[in-house]
Amino acid sequence: MAPPPAALPPLLPVLPVLPALAALLAALPAAPAARAAPRSIAVVGAGLGGSAAAYFLQQHFGPQVQLDVYEAAGVGGRLATVTVNKQQYESRGASIHALSLHMQDFVKILGLKHRREVAGKSAIFSGEHFVLEETDWYLLNLFRLWWHYGISFLRLQMWVEEVMEKFMRIYKYQAHGYAFSSLEELLRSLGGEAFVNMTQRSVAESLLEVGVTQRFVDDVIAAVLRSSYGQSVLVPAFAGAMSLAGAQGSTWAVEGGNKLVCSGLLKLTKANVISARVTGISLHSSEGRALYQVHYESPEGQGSAFYDLVVVTTPLHPSRSNFTFDNFDPPIADFPAAFQPSVTSVVHGYLNSSYFGFPDPKLFPFTSILTTDTPDLFFHAMDNICPVNISAAFRRKQPQEAAVWRVLSQQPLDKPQLKTLFRSYYSVQVTERQAHPRYDAAKALPPVVLHENLFYLSGVEWVASSMEMIAVAAKNVALLAYNRWHQDLEKIDQKDLMHKVKTEL
Ligand SMILES: Cc1cc2nc3c(=O)[nH]c(=O)nc-3n(C[C@H](O)[C@H](O)[C@H](O)COP(=O)(O)OP(=O)(O)OC[C@H]3O[C@@H](n4cnc5c(N)ncnc54)[C@H](O)[C@@H]3O)c2cc1C
Ligand SMILES: *[C@@H]1O[C@H](CO)[C@@H](O)[C@H](O)[C@H]1NC(C)=O
Ligand SMILES: *[C@@H]1O[C@H](CO)[C@@H](O)[C@H](O)[C@H]1NC(C)=O
Ligand SMILES: *[C@@H]1O[C@H](CO)[C@@H](O)[C@H](O)[C@H]1NC(C)=O
Ligand SMILES: *[C@@H]1O[C@H](CO)[C@@H](O)[C@H](O)[C@H]1NC(C)=O
Predict the structure, then answer these.
(1) Nearest CA to ligand 4 atom 9
(2) pLDDT given at position 13
(3) Do the Cβ atoms of 399 and 351 come closer than 8 Å?
(4) What is the DSSP secondary structure assignment for residue 229, as one 8-state letter?
(5) Each residue of 182-205: pLDDT tens digit?
(6) Contact 84/348 with Cβ under 8 angstroms?
(7) Ligand 5 atom closest to the CA of 422, numbered from 1
């Protein structure tokens, strides 16, 4: 059963204007075509970032532009699914916040559906016992009833809502065609200097400052951040707020798998998807303007092609991609950054409920287990997951039956660890990735503009790593590329946009 509507958190004040915003998003600003459109555009990467960038670039530049999308592995990137018993499961990025307007829009345009929600209960495990148990689906929402966290909960909620409300301004700005040439400018226009600061100070520090207690931070906030980023309460405040917003409100996913958004957008744009690994980009010029040569390798061999405009949507970091940038002056280097290793194990088996203090497996009530920051705990979180296609007849397995669990951990689970969590299992599928930025290593935010018409999308992950952030960044890059191409400087890095969009309406 889906949770009753009464369990929903109070809606943000911005909610009533959503339909109007959605309409605005659909209506594109028609800018003067002072200059011929680019002949060809390349997008590197076909995860959500590349797919959304391709879609928005075509929206702005028009269907006549040749659009090539290079993908080294599979369309969808980190939204890949794994197959267990002929059913697909999300191995990672699973839930989308209710207020993710671009994601909502994609699903609508593509005729996709929201996946049916299957209720379940969450709890936070300390390694020895459950420190908090939930009585319903939404983790933090119900924790509000927990009296000894009462005030902390309200303060947390107010803090998250304030951040979200300011963040939502981006949709208005984008609907009016405004773009930002750096992540700092984007953040500043949404929430002033304080928003920029939120990428540099920890979520713990920010929450303690607004009066949330240390105990609430240790018990609840830490568990949420471990489950979403596999990191501690030292992640920056902005990334923390986004992840807490997801834990607090209602979330959704796409029926058939979130990755359908990527393949759908690429199909819609009729982009030319090229299965190849891009190895580098070199700068040339033709008739006084920049021309980018994209070098790639595929099973058929090496090749290259020239483009007027390029958007890179894969992290420029040696551990993630081997890019070389040639002939650029000043040179473009890798950006100093570290990634947090993260392992997802999708296990089909019988939960060892004894380990969690329930000797009788039939009585185990939880489907989602978060954990506190305890030194000996070898996993961050585990969820009893449902397939990406959920029919009306679908029901969760009984706790004593074999089920599919997704276990998040920093290191791969060894046999004894698997045997601790599961009485026995049929299969284990491991995805090991440098999944998220390691936020404590972040010093400055990466650039968006690498060269005249060469852009970098993935840097936004250093602000926060989520599907909607990526979609927002894709829209920004497309608008920025378009505004720069047509030298519409009025639409780039404008100050006082709240006032401007009001008077423009
Ligand atoms: C464990 C985990 C859980 C998550 N949970 C959530 C969640 O609940 N909600 C949420 O909103 N977000 C979640 N996220 C974040 C979300 O999955 C990502 O933000 C998003 O999928 C990133 O999309 P992307 O296109 O930027 O990157 P990617 O999906 O990584 O796409 C980059 C693409 O580029 C390709 N590529 C790399 N190098 C090259 C090259 N040289 N040439 C050509 N192609 C190349 C890759 O193969 C890949 O397909 C989660 C992430 C992880 C890891
Ligand atoms: C931002 O941080 C700096 C240094 O950490 C501080 O001096 C400044 O007051 C902060 N600004 C805001 C608006 O919070
Ligand atoms: C799963 O859902 C998607 C999207 O609705 C649909 O295209 C696909 O056929 C479904 N697959 C199965 C096995 O039902
Ligand atoms: C990059 O190149 C190095 C050395 O050639 C290699 O070890 C590494 O695996 C490569 N990384 C990726 C992501 O391909
Ligand atoms: C299950 O958990 C109990 C209690 O921690 C432990 O003694 C046992 O070894 C675990 N594994 C199995 C397979 O029962």
Answers:
(1) 319
(2) 38
(3) yes
(4) H
(5) 999 999 999 999 999 999 999 999
(6) yes
(7) 13
Strands (E), 119-188: 122-125, 130-133
For the chain, domains (ranges, CATH) are 40-76+258-338+441-504 (3.50.50.60), 116-166+195-250+339-439 (3.90.660)
Atom number of ligand 2 nearest to Cα 196: 1
Q: What integer pLDDT is reported at residue 135 of this predicted model?
A: 60
DSSP state of 200: T
Between CA 24 and CA 19 the distance in angstroms is 9
Among 116, 122, 112, CA closest to 388: 116
Whether residue 131 is predicted with pLDDT greater than 90 in this model: the reply is: no
Ligand 2 atom 6 nearest Cα? 197
Query: Candidates 86, 389, 391, 394: which one to mutate for ligand 3, based on the most atoms within 8 Å of Cβ?
Result: 389
Under 8 Å between Cβ of 462 and 199: yes
Instruction: Report which protein residue has its CA nearest ligand 5's atom 8.
Output: 420
Say how many residues make up the chain.
505
Q: Which run of H or E residues covers position 119?
A: none
374: Cβ below 6 Å to ligand 5? no
Q: How far is the CA of 352 from the centre of ligand 5 (A)?
A: 6
**pLDDT for residue 425 is more than 50:** yes
User: Pick from 217, 258, 225: which is nearest to 408 by CA?
Assistant: 225
pLDDT for 84-108, tens place per residue?
999 999 987 678 998 899 999 999 9
Of residues 104, 109, 103, the one with CA closest to residue 49: 103
Local confidence band at 302 (pLDDT 50, 70, 90 cut-offs): very high
Q: Which pLDDT does position 384 carry in this prediction?
A: 95
Q: For residue 205, give the DSSP letter.
A: H
